[in-house]
Amino acid sequence: MAESRTPLKKFQTRSVDSATSWLTGCLDQLDRLHPEHPQFSANRATVINRQGGILFEAPTGTGKTLMAGTTAEKLSLSGHKILWFWFAPFDGLVTQSAATLRSEFSNLRVRELATDREVATLACPSP
Hints:
Blueprint: H1 10-32, H2 40-51, H3 64-76, H4 91-104
Helix pairs in contact: 1-2, 1-3
């Protein structure tokens, strides 16, 4: 099971469990779609638009990065191939988020925005 080095508080655990459940539901729906179906692309887009995202909205210092990272790590370890995009509004928050992800989540690979732009290197590593 994915665990961060910093233990989650009860409200954080509830948030992570809810987010993980929500996104697992999305992944399960996507797995049930058949690529050969004539409406595959439209059905895939519908599932993603309805259930393919979450937002942790809370005051500063409540552990949003920790909760989002825990959710990402749990889902990444579930067997699905997932590429995560992390958005932050300011350069300082990008740096802070990357540092937290690196220190808290050994199962997530953080890419360098300025230098890590080769598509071939995005492939999942061999087990």
